[in-house]
Amino acid sequence: MPVTDVTTDAEALTMTLTAEFAAPVERLWNAFTDPGQLERFWGPPGWPASFPRFDFTVGGRAVYAMTSPRGEKSFGSWEFIDIDQPRGFTVLDNFANEDGAPLDGMPAMRVVFTFEPTDTGSRMVNVSHFASADALEQVVAFGAVEGSTLALNQLDRVLEGLRSYAAGKGTQTEILDDTHVRITRLIEGPIDLVWRAHHEPELLKQWMLGPDGWRLDVCEVDPAVGGRYRYEWEPVGVEGERFGFDGETLLSEAPRRAVTTEHMTGTDYPSTLNDLSLYEEDGATLITLLIEYPDKETRDMVLATGMTEGMEASYARLEGVLAAV
Question: CB under 8 Å, gap of 24 or more: what pairs does 239-248 form?
Fold first, then answer.
């Protein structure tokens, strides 16, 4: 993971984050100063960022919004104080309203981003300066250490490029914490088609089958927010019992993000929260599925079913379906 250290200093009133990357300084600089790239890693998993405003000049301002799986938004703003390309830049970072105006009573931070070369690539040192110990404690209590670490640990795949990072690796499952798992798979095909394949029953029935020998018999999808879906599989020529899932759409931002609940039909098992994100680069689309489980025991039980292998079988099938569309 890129982040190697996060340190808070109550006497110096600072929080310092250090991360190492296998990419040159110029590439790291581009990732932090291009809002299209910045949006891919600045928000932690489950809270992706968007930058509707980004005036990268001294005195200019950037406004960003991070959106939760349930649609809540948290806004922030940067005022660019100093720019020293490609060695770094300094911002005044504020909690903000949707217009980018600082929120009263919330701490402001002077944040210095420094990029320096190393023998293996580059290093980023991010130092946040606070006006008081209370402000530092407040930001740490908000989860800044954990959130920043999770966010910046996503940067490797941006720096490397999707094909180099994910191509040929198949379905990858990462355990992020006791209740969150991230699944990624690179699919050869444009984002619009991948989105359709996740929402149109006639396409879903062709690929979302899991291991050989199963058929998606029931496929009902209402992709609108508040709409419900229901899937039911039956065995064909193999041993097994019918099973299914149902749930509700909580967030839909076609063709990039959809958040749904998922419940095993006919059981009292708790629901999971499934946060699907799509990103296209050079004709390929990275599928990222962030799953939130109610507890560690449920997480481990589901992973032990061979979920990753079943999803890989489905995703391999999906590529063939897209090639024929």
Answer: 240/213, 240/214, 242/217, 244/218, 247/271, 247/274
